[in-house]
Every structure is written in structure tokens, then in C-alpha cells.
Automatic annotation (TrEMBL):
Top-level taxon in the UniProt lineage: Bacteria
Transmembrane feature ranges: 6-24, 31-60, 66-84, 105-122, 188-208, 252-272, 278-297, 309-333, 371-390, 402-424, 430-447, 454-471
Signal sequence annotation: none
Transmembrane helix in keyword set: yes
Entry protein name: Transporter
Keyword Transmembrane: yes
Keywords from the UniProt entry: Membrane, Transmembrane, Transmembrane helix
Length: 472
């Protein structure tokens, strides 16, 4: 049944176009989203009080939807902080360094270790956990510092974060905006993440070896550890409270912690835990590890230091998601949030603003999978231009839903494609200010790292888009 569009639909669409224009100009979209929420609220309630209240209520709605993601990332960062302070991270990684005997083994070894660490700890904490240990080892076997930074960056902020299969922060955002189960988006993203990761890392490695052979490679070294931004783990480089463990205790913890997370993964498969249940299992395990290690390391101060680490973790979590909440609040209005907040103000038979626009688009414009795939890749890339990766993926999910409705299929694939594109561009592989954690650990320029990543990432996006066309 064809749905008649009302002014609310066109206002929402106009703000989407406006937001994309602002992103292209590399400006912040938070204020635009808040104005969009106000405008939709005014049209729905026709009262000043209703539209003003709608801003706050939409923030509450978005926070309720995202609170599990915010908490898991905050807790993981808090746990990572105590592992770094106690040196447990060094003991965990040390046995792996014996395999890094050549530049090739160092590049792929650092990348794979970073991939695993980032899946469980998130990339920014992962960089701090393993970078300080592995980068000097890589340098001794002939891998340039910039090569190590590229490996850590592409495998961590690229492959691991674009899939985000353990913590599930990224698929949660895009799936909600697209009105899909998280599991559907995660499953659809697997072939795209594999293709994107394989093409990008292979191209980056080949280009590195080629330039080293030609003598045109440059590392762009700077003073390591001097940069600081929102991507770094809170407290890294600051004066830390005394946290001492015996070498034997560190070794036991270095074995026990990976085993606990491995047990979590096994439980996910055996008990078929997905989405919030899987996240809760990882989060609860991280809290117990945080408490146990803190009590062992700080002894009489363990009670107070547990709280301190949690505060630092939550500061990081809300710093990352602070700009995401108002943006997500606007895009949630494209689905069920609008009716929940403002009542049934849409035409009878409406399935939400975005769905209605998708149906209308199907009648107005001849679309196919190719056009939809290219559009989602471009949309995802544009949303990543602010260097966050997460702030715009709600837009990618919303646009994916619109195009999937129009062509009648491919909702999960298009959503996953937008997610992969947004994360690879903005999550920390192409935007210099998002590259600072990896660049600082390796002592290289974030601008040189972005330049080195540019061609491999663009090649990967092109190939992944073509693959997505066949999967829709």
C-alpha cells in the first residue's frame, strides 16, 4: 500500500540532506540534529513546550538504547587501565614476541594480535595494551615504526572495529537505526569485513615492501607519547597510583584473563547468546577482572582504586558517546521513537518516517542494488569525516533502511556496508586526529599514517562495494 507523505517526512529528509552537507564540510552536526528534533517536535505537537520537551526526551530515548554499549566500553577501558598499570599486559603479550622474527612476520603478527585484542578490549585500549611491548620488538627485526602503526591501525581500528563482533557497539547503532536485529547486521557484515580487511591489509603490506625496496619509504617519526586526544586511554602517561604485583602473579593473571574471555566466547556459542546478552557476559567478566586485579595490586587501597578506575572508564565512555547521543536521538525519530515520543502523528498505515520515504523513493526513482551499494559506501564515508566513526553510523543505518525498502531487499547487507565504510574512514584509519593513539605509541606523525593508509583503504572500499552489490 502506498503511503501518502506529509510535511513531517519532507522536513526529516531535508535535515538528513543538511546533515550530510555539514559532514562534507567537516563541521559538527550536533546542533543541526537538535534543531531537527525541535522542528519535528513542533510539527508533531504544535506547542512550544512539546517541542522543547521532545529534545530532552529524545536524548533519554537514545541514551536508553545506547546505555549498554556505553557501559561495556567504559568497563573495558577501566579494566585495561589496571592491566596497563600493573604490567599484566606486557606479560600477556611477551610470549608472542618470539614469533616476530622478520619484518613480514612482525607486520602480520602485530596486526593479528591487535585484531584479537581490539575485539575484546576495543582498539584504543588495545593500542595501549600491546603497542608499547610489540613496537620495539618489531623495530629490532626491521619493521619500520610507520609499518607497525599501519598494521595496528588497519587491523584494530579497521577490521576489528568495523565488525565489532564481541562488544557489538557498532552493529547496535546501525541495526537500531535500520530497524533490524543486531544479529542480522553482524552476520551480513562478515563477508564485507573479510573482503575489506584482506584487500586493505594486503595492499598496505605490498605498498610498504615496494617503497622500502625502492628506498622511497619515510617513517615520519615524531616524539612518541606526546600527543593526547579523546581516542587515547584515560590516564595513559599520567602519574599513576602504585600498583605492584609479583612476577609470578602477573604470569598467572596473564593466563587466567585470556582464558576467562575465551570461556565467554565459548558460552556465547553454546548458549547462543547475542546482542545484549553477549555484551552483558563480557561486561560482567571485565568487572570481576577489574576488581580482582585491583585488589591484588593495590591491597588496602583496592576498594578506593576500583572506583577510581571505573570513573576513568566512564569518563572515556561518555567522552566518546557524548556527541553520539544527540545525533542518534534524531535518527531514532525516523523509526519507532517518533510515535513513542510524540504520539501517532503520521498517516494511517505508516511504518515510520524512514520506511515511508523508502516506499516513496521506490515509486519515484528506479533503483537497483548497485546504486544502493554505492550510495551507502559514500554515505558511510561522509559520516566518518568527523573522525569519530560512531557519530554518523546511525545515519548510515537510516539511509540503508530507506534504500532497502525502495529496492525490496538487502537491508542487512546495506546496513553493514554503511557501517564498514563509516568505521574504516572515521574510526581511525584515514582521519589524522582519529589516528593519534596508534601514531603516538609508534612515535610517527598521524598525518603520515593517514597518507599511508589512504590508497589501501580506498581500494578496499571499492572492492567491498562491488562484493556488496552481488550480496544484496
Amino acid at each position: 500500500m502506498e503511503i501518502s507523505l506529509v510535511p513531517l517526512h519532507f522536513v526529516y529528509l531535508a535535515f538528513i540532506v543538511f546533515i550530510m552537507g555539514v559532514l562534507i564540510k567537516r563541521r559538527d552536526t550536533t546542533m543541526i540534529c537538535v534543531i531537527g528534533i525541535f522542528a519535528l517536535g513542533w510539527m508533531a505537537t504544535e506547542t512550544l513546550a512539546g517541542s522543547v520537551s521532545g529534545i530532552f526526551n529524545s536524548f533519554i530515548f537514545a541514551t536508553k538504547e545506547l546505555i549498554g554499549t556505553i557501559f561495556i566500553i567504559s568497563i573495558i577501558v577501566a579494566m585495561s587501565r589496571v592491566l596497563i598499570q600493573t604490567g599484566v599486559n606486557e606479560v600477556m603479550v611477551a610470549p608472542l614476541t618470539r614469533f616476530l622474527r622478520t619484518p613480514a612476520l612482525a607486520f602480520w603478527g602485530i596486526g593479528l594480535i591487535m585484531l584479537v585484542a581490539s575485539l575484546f578490549f576495543w582498539p584504543s585500549p588495545g593500542v595501549a595494551l600491546i603497542g608499547a611491548v610489540l613496537v620495539p620488538v618489531a623495530a629490532r627485526v626491521g619493521l619500520p615504526a610507520l609499518g607497525a602503526a599501519v598494521a595496528m591501525n588497519l587491523f584494530g581500528h579497521g577490521i576489528a572495529l568495523s565488525g565489532d563482533y564481541i562488544i557489538q557497539g557498532a552493529p547496535k547503532l546501525t541495526a537500531d537505526a535500520a530497524g533490524l536485529p543486531v544479529a542480522d547486521v553482524m552476520q551480513a557484515s562478515i563477508p564485507l569485513v573479510i573482503v575489506m580487511g584482506a584487500v586493505t591489509t594486503a595492499a598496505a603490506y605490498w605498498m610498504m615492501r615496494r617503497d622500502m625496496a625502492k628506498g622511497t619509504w619515510r617513517d615520519g617519526l615524531v616524539g612518541a607519547g606526546k600527543a593526547d586526544d579523546g581516542g587515547a586511554v584515560p590516564g595513559i602517561g599520567e602519574a599513576a597510583p602504585a600498583a605492584t604485583l609479583s612476577q609470578r602473579t602477573k604470569r598467572w593473571l596473564a593466563v587466567l584473563i585470556p582464558l576467562l574471555f575465551a570461556a565467554d566466547v565459548a558460552a556465547m556459542f553454546l548458549l547462543r547468546l547475542q546482542g545484549g546478552d553477549a555484551t552483558a557476559l563480557i561486561g560482567g567478566t571485565a568487572v570481576l577482572i577489574l576488581m580482582g586485579v585491583t585488589l591484588l595490586a593495590h591491597r588496602n587501597q583496592g576498594l578506593e582504586q576500583t572506583t577510581t578506575y571505573l570513573i576513568e572508564g566512564f569518563q572515556f565512555g561518555f567522552k566518546v558517546f557524548g556527541p553520539v547521543i544527540p545525533i542518534a536521538a534524531f535518527f531514532y525519530l525516523g523509526d519507532s521513537a517518533f510515535t513513542e515520543l510524540f504520539g501517532q502523528k503520521l498517516p494511517d498505515g505508516s511504518h515510520g518516517i524512514v520506511n515511508d520515504l523508502g516506499v516513496a523513493l521506490a515509486h519515484w526513482v528506479p533503483l537497483n542494488g548497485g546504486v544502493a551499494a554505492v550510495t551507502l559506501t559514500v554515505t558511510g564515508a561522509i559520516t566518518g569525516l568527523d573522525g569519530s566513526g560512531f557519530s554518523g553510523i546511525s545515519l548510515a543505518g537510516s539511509v540503508a533502511k530507506l534504500f532497502a525498502t525502495a529496492i525490496g531487499s538487502g537491508a542487512a547487507t546495506l546496513t553493514a556496508l554503511g557501517q564498514v565504510s563509516a568505521i574504516w574512514v572515521g574510526g581511525g584509519t584515514l582521519i589524522p586526529w582519529a589516528l593519534i593513539p596508534a601514531a603516538a605509541i609508534c612515535g610517527v606523525s598521524p598525518f603520515e599514517l593517514a597518507r599511508r593508509n589512504l590508497k589501501p583503504v580506498l581500494l578496499g572500499l571499492a572492492v567491498t562495494t562491488v562484493v556488496a552489490m552481488f550480496l544484496i
